[in-house]
Amino acid sequence: MWNAEQGRPSETTDYKAEAPGATMELAAGCKDTVCIDTQSERFDARYLGSLSQLPQETEKNYFCLEDEEEGENEEGDPSVFPFSPAFASGTAGTSSSVLNVNVGGRTYRLTYQAVAIYPTTRLGRLATSTDRWHQLGLCDDYAAQGDEYFFDRDPAVFQLVYNFYASGVLRVQDELCPRSFLEELSYWGVRLKYTPRCCRICFEERCDELNEQLKVQEELRAQAAVQESEHLFHHMRYAVQRWRLWNLMEKPFSSTMAKVMGVASSLFVLISVVALALNTVEEMQHKDKGNREFRPILEHVETFCIAFFTLEYVLRLLSTPDLRRFASSALNAVDLIAVLPLYLQLLLECFVDEDLPHGQGSPHEHEIEKVGRVGKVGQVLRIMRLMRIFRILKLARHSTGMRAFGFTLRQCYQQVGCLFLFIALGIFAFSAMVYTVEHDVSSTNFTSIPHAWWWAAVSISTVGYGDMCPETHLGRIFAFLCIAFGIILNGMPISVLYNKFSDYYIKLKAYEYTAIRKDRGKVNFTRRAVKKISECCGNRPTQLPRHRYH
Is the separation of the CB atoms in 27 and 33 below 8 Å? Predict the structure, then answer.
């Protein structure tokens, strides 16, 4: 048994390894020094052999996460790697067969035999390399006095790597960051295939959770990049004016005027939506002189709101520092959809109101021509009017909950798509079942499978209008199964969607709170600074040097 110091009593703690005959010991009297000893007589002779395969093994790509599955097929059993005891003395430059490794201030001592079993790892390449310069290139530093290789890495993760060399099994600790753990494994060249199934399942779950959290952080970082974009104005024309206009439109808490602008935008959205709804009431419509069509009384109110939205969109477009990011923003797309239908409708109405050339045809023919034109573009006008309801989505700019809901749908599109797939399968299946047993009944509403789709959709959603219902006993059994299927199906994604929504909502509120405090802090700091300087100057009027973009 090899000890850290000659003549010191061998008071060690033994760790049994899975490799036949291999043992691992903690050097006596040294808490930060450990060693692996494979010089025992119980060490299996299968680990010994020729050195002919060493160059080929060391030239492999020792770690690649993307090729993990391919690497498992390429690599065989690491325990059959040929090794000779004389190799250590010939490659280490010393008669000792122990590899001294210092990782983050902790000293580890491993025998060359135990490390060379895994030649594709960093320490395995260090132990099997015959080139001294190549050995030095694998470490951060080297001390010739103690023949010690230094690595500036995390000792907590290397402790798991060290245990892996002893037992051949890579354990994963829950308290370690998955990203940091993978980076350390990539550095040491240890593959995840050596991890037990139980540890690997937990580790993959933590990686998935971390990836979801990173997506949320990326979303928040993108919003922060839009808010904190002062440097983009440096080389722009009218930089000061555009920066102030940008703060006015995008940062409601940056100034009193910005607060007024944010409140006014929300009020105009609500007023326009109410006016849009009241314009459809018959009592709120009147006939213009010489016009047979009813004109809404609140039409001018809605037009004024659209004019305000247009001005708001133009100001945002003029003040934006990045047109590409502005065009790709979902909120800006909503602003454009809110104002575009009115202008398209006006354009189409102008096209319809064009009369025939004077002197050609009678007034009756003119009216027929106009009706024909209305028939061609009437459907388009209805679609344009329908698109006006999307202006309510403008509230998402001022509503944290709506933005959190939109992000939840984007992140859970797979779960939502799977839900709609199951609903579609249920509708097709139960509508066919009910049609089969109900189509022979007199005065039945289930005249075809497509007619039964509506009944199946209403039943799966557990709404149940009652306009269509089966009359046979077997049809009612199918109806009960359809309703039960809908109850189970609708409850499945609720927990997933709610958890993601609440998590993102909390993070978004925390981010907004931090941004608000930051903006308010800048304003309050400026006021306090002006007050203090005025007091120091004997209450004389003092003007604080203004920031370039404030």
Answer: yes
Q: Quick: pLDDT tens for 153-206.
A: 988 889 999 988 888 888 888 888 888 888 898 899 888 888 888 888 888 888
CB 74 within 8 A of CB 62: no
Q: Compute how many other C-beta atoms are within 10 angstroms of the C-beta atom of residue 116.
A: 30
CATH annotation of 230-398: 1.20.120.350
Nearest to 22 by CA among 34, 44, 38, 35: 38
Alpha carbon distance 337, 310 (integer Å): 11
Strand order in the sheet with 13-16: 13-16, 23-26, 33-37, 106-111, 98-103, 148-151, 141-143
With tokens 């009910």, the residue in question is: 434
**Model pLDDT for residues 443-476, shown as the tens digit of each residue:** 888 888 998 999 999 999 888 887 888 889 999 9
Name the nearest CA neighbour of 162 among 98, 207, 114.
114
Residue 433 has which token pair?
A: 């079942």
Distance CA 275, CA 388 (A): 11
Residues 6+ apart with CB under 8 A from 24: 14, 15, 16, 17, 34, 35, 36, 37, 163, 166
Q: Structure tokens of 306?
A: 């659209």
Domain coordinates in residue numbering, the chain: 13-195, 230-398, 413-492
Q: How far apart are CA 484 and CA 486, in angstroms?
A: 5
How many whole angstroms separate alpha carbon 219 and alpha carbon 400? Answer: 13
CA dist 349 to 136, 294, 374, 521, Å?
80, 15, 9, 52
Q: How many CB atoms lie within 10 A of CB 247?
A: 21
* Integer angstrom CA distances of residue 194 from 56, 61, 117, 304, 339: 22, 17, 13, 69, 60
CATH number for the segment(s) 13-195 = 3.30.710.10
Residue 136, token pair as written in the block:
């030095």
Secondary structure string (H, E, C) spanning 22-39: CEEEECCCCCCEEEEECC
Question: How many residues comprise the chain?
Answer: 550
Cα–Cα distance measured from residue 195 to residue 164, given in angstroms and rounded to the nearest whole number: 9
- Residue 220, SS3 per DSSP: helix
162 token code pair:
């060290």
Token code pair at residue 321? 């520092």
* 358 membership: H or E segment, kind and range: none
Task: Tell me if 317 sits within 8 A of 284, measured CB to CB.
Answer: no
Domain 413-492 sits in CATH at 1.10.287.70
